[in-house]
Amino acid sequence: MRIPGPFVTFEGGEGSGKSTQLRLLAARLSADGHTVVTTREPGGTPGAEAVRRLLLEGDGDRWSALAELYLFLAARTDHVERLVAPARARGAFVLCDRFHDSTRVYQGLAGGLGLALVDRLQAPVLARARPDLTVLLDLAPEVGLARRARAGGGGRFERRDPDFHRRVREGFLELARREPERIRVFDATLPEAVLADEIYRTVRDRFGREP
Ligand SMILES: Nc1ncnc2c1ncn2[C@@H]1O[C@H](COP(=O)(O)OP(=O)(O)OP(=O)(O)O)[C@@H](O)[C@H]1O
Ligand SMILES: [Mg+2]
Questions:
Q1: Residue at 211 is within a domain
Q2: What is the structure's pLDDT at 155?
Q3: Label partner for 174 (CA 20 to 30 A): which of 9, 71, 182, 185?
């Protein structure tokens, strides 16, 4: 049987450089000859993208915290079943922009549902696809939100109060302290190219094998 392809997730607050670094890593891994599948959450499949619109559009208080959690998990389940797990089974490198740690932080640690509940409810979907490595881009929320504002972004989550964004940053760092082997923290204030080198080196060291 084929060895499942590596599953790498990118996490961090708004505007921390997740999408930029995912793109740069994908280009380097492809140049090395790997089959790379890039995707994002919430979304990645037609069903999950439909749920994404429910999650990211509308008023900040459109959903209760628990209703929101179930929507995220519905989207993740479709994404994992139809895209992530099959791609890994083919041996592809799967790079995903946000995954379960975002839920653990935004809904669990910063959003008030607590980590235990979130972990319990998402255990079944994680059993089908668990990240091997997580790139955490750590950045002061003011800096990330200013970058996003310049880039013209705007969504339900970034309109939350500054204290929420501080809890998000702290929440991600807390998860990294609990799982230092899986979650690697990078200083997102570094220039893009420097970060890209560091992330590539980390991935190569972890999954050092011929394509
Ligand atoms: N290392 C960096 N230093 C300075 N600016 C950066 C860096 N990386 C990305 N940027 C810029 O910051 C903005 C946000 O980057 P990017 O979209 O990659 O972040 P993101 O984490 O995916 O954001 P979002 O939360 O909106 O998805 C972009 O305008 C990007 O060009
Ligand atoms: Mg992004």
A1: no
A2: 67
A3: 71
pLDDT at 210: 58
Residues 80-111 have pLDDT tens digits of 999 999 999 999 999 999 999 999 999 999 99
- CA 123 – ligand 1 centroid, Å: 30
Answer whether the bond into residue 6 is a cis peptide, omega within 30°.
Answer: no
How many structural domains compose the chain? Answer: 1
Q: Which residues contact 161 (CB under 8 A, 6 or more apart)?
A: none
The H or E element spanning position 25 is helix 18-31
Indicate whether 51 belongs to any domain: yes
pLDDT tens digits for range 12-21 = 999 999 999 9
User: Is residue 21 assigned to a domain?
Assistant: yes
| Ligand 1 centroid, distance to 14 Cα (angstroms) | 8
The CA 200 to ligand 1 mean position distance, Å, reads: 18
Residue 46 has pLDDT above 70, yes or no: yes
Helix (H, G, I), strand (E, B) or coil at 16: coil
Specify if 2 maps to a domain.
Answer: no
Nearest-angstrom CA–CA distance, 41 and 9: 10
- pLDDT for 60 equals 78
CATH code (residue 186) = 3.40.50.300
Question: Which residues' Cβ are closer than 6 Å to ligand 1?
Answer: 12, 14-20, 147-148, 151, 153, 190-192, 195
Q: Whole domain around residue 71: which residue ranges?
A: 7-206
Closest residue by CA, ligand 1 atom 6: 17
Rounded distance from Cα 91 to ligand 2 centre (Å): 25
